[in-house]
Write a structure and sequence with these properties.
By secondary structure, the chain is mostly helical. The protein has helices at 2-9, 12-42, 45-48, 90-99, 114-117, 122-133, 157-164, 178-188, 194-197, 238-247, 257-265, 272-282, 298-311, 313-316, 342-350, 375-385, 398-409; strands at 64-67, 70-73, 215-217, 220-222, 352-353, 365-366. The chain folds into three domains: 45-164, no CATH class; 178-282, Cytochrome Bc1 Complex, Chain D, domain 2 (Orthogonal Bundle); 298-409, Cytochrome Bc1 Complex, Chain D, domain 2 (Orthogonal Bundle). The protein is globular, with a radius of gyration of 25 Å.
Amino acid sequence: MRTSKIILAASAGLAAALTIAPASAQNLSFSQVERGRYLATVGNCAGCHTDEVNDGERFAGGREMETPFGSIYTPNITFDNETGLGLWTRDDFYRAMNEGIARDGSHLYPAFPYPYFTLMPRQEIDAIYDYLSSIEPVYSETPEPQFPFPLNIRQAVMGWNLLYFEPQEFVPDPEQSDEWNRGRYLVDGPAHCGACHTDKNFAGADIEDEYLRGGVLEDWLAPNIRGGENGGIAHWSEDDIVAFLEGGRNDHTGVMPRMGEVVVLSTQYMETADLEAIAIYLKTLDDEARDPVEQPSEAIMTAGGGIYFDNCAACHASDGTGVPEIFAPLAGSNKVNAEDPITMLRVILEGTLAVPTNDNPGPIGMPAFDWKLTDQQIADLATFLRASWGNSAPAVSEGEVADLRERLEE
């Protein structure tokens, strides 16, 4: 009512200013929050900062993340004043994302992917801040990291940063298209693909020469995703990459648990144009041809082939071609051909369930064979798969299977 009286008393020009300005501010606020929501989705913030195992609240943290050095628990990123970001300013949040330094000046462990987020411009980080501030605050305390001395002293991260980190902005390559640059920015920045798909050194930092050539995380292999000549997904088209990221399935494979979480919470909600940009970029990444491996003995191939035809061929076909978008082909599979066979062995031991997505709501499963096959039988089967139908990867030993089985049973 008071606003109406002011407008009636004002000149036409002043009235226009009074009525238009609040509407513009509302639109700007909404678009900023929506932009932040999208960026938080690209970065899969909910995936790490939600403790699904213990039915935790969204973004309230508490999820245990296993690292080679011990377990770390993700913090509460809702705007609760006591346990979350409620007292953080935009500058505090930007410093954490850009430099890995918290509001109190302590150093964040690089399990938080600030080495990737540093590429994000201030405007995008501010948008994420505004989005998170719009969410209902949740009181949720974060457990302390379970790291041995001296890693439990956060100041130790200063040395890590000196060796392996430098804040930087994303610089487009003028020789490449806008789509290529957008794809590279998404891969290296907010989507932080290298956090899983790039192998790490003894200190947990990316090995530059292993960029997107695959890495092991929590006994899963994040495979080689270089899409150019000799790359792990060289046989995938750009459309295949988009289909996988958008729906969790394509003619070559179905998404498995760790990456399944990324698809379910992140990539299936990304704009198709952004997924296409990622595909364009990945398809330009060539790789070195691998040296040929020694062909397994006839005895192993015979034993492994027999196990395959008894247990696997009904779904994956006698020639390993599978059934498109239902049963993954084993011929040419980047998981079967990976230097490290851990994902393939884990799937054989535990089975797996392709996660349902909006485009493919019906989950597809593979049964476990740990109860049925011995370590030697699984090794023979895996070796057979890695040396058949054009596949070429090192043989698998009984000891590798036994070690993995023991770890999974712990």
